[in-house]
Amino acid sequence: MALKSSALVASGVDDDKFDPLSPLEVYVVHPVWTTTPADLARIGQLSYDRSADMFFVKRSVDYRGGVAVEARDERFARYVIADMETDVVVAMMIEGFLTKVVKEVPALFDELERAKLRGITIDEIRELRRQLTAEGHGVGPTLAEFYSPESWSEPVVSGDA
Question: How would you label 101-136 residue by residue, b for 16+ Cβ within 10 Å and e otherwise?
């Protein structure tokens, strides 16, 4: 499904001095793509953190973090990370990656083969892939379908990227 055209983001929620009774400063974020999700995954840095069960794709250069904006999907949670100053998408993040997502999109095991891993080894990932295939989870969308622009949002492709 398409990404909402904007998202409200509260600032200061993680601040030690956060006062829940005071008004929050709110930003409106309109994520802007300068490439496609597939190209970001192809040239970006991939990582997986087992303790958070989160897969992360970020641009190789100039990544400073940003604001997470949820891409709507009934099956699992995926987010684009937009730079706070420019709203340009600088990363993609997928929650519940091994517990849920790879069961529906087994082709993503190929991405784990290229990713920097934390809290899990490549041998453990290969064993999990073998188990899921034995359970009948070997068929699903391709990587191209998973990274299709419609799955993340309508990208705005800029020639200046």
Answer: bbbebbbbbebbeebebeebeeeebeeebeebeeee
Q: Residue type at 93? A: M
Give the whole-angstrom CA distance, residue 108 versus residue 76. Answer: 14
Model pLDDT for residues 109-135, shown as the tens digit of each residue: 999 999 999 999 999 999 999 999 999
Distance CA 128, CA 121 (A): 11
Delimit the domains of the chain by residue range: 7-96+145-152
CA distances from 6 to 2, 87, 144, 151, 153 (A): 11, 10, 25, 16, 11
Q: Which residue has the tokens 């420019």?
A: 86
Q: Which residues of 30-62 are buried (b: 16+ CB within 10 A; e: fewer)?
A: ebbbbbebbebbeebebebbeeebbbbbbbeee
Evaluate if pTM is beyond 0.90: no
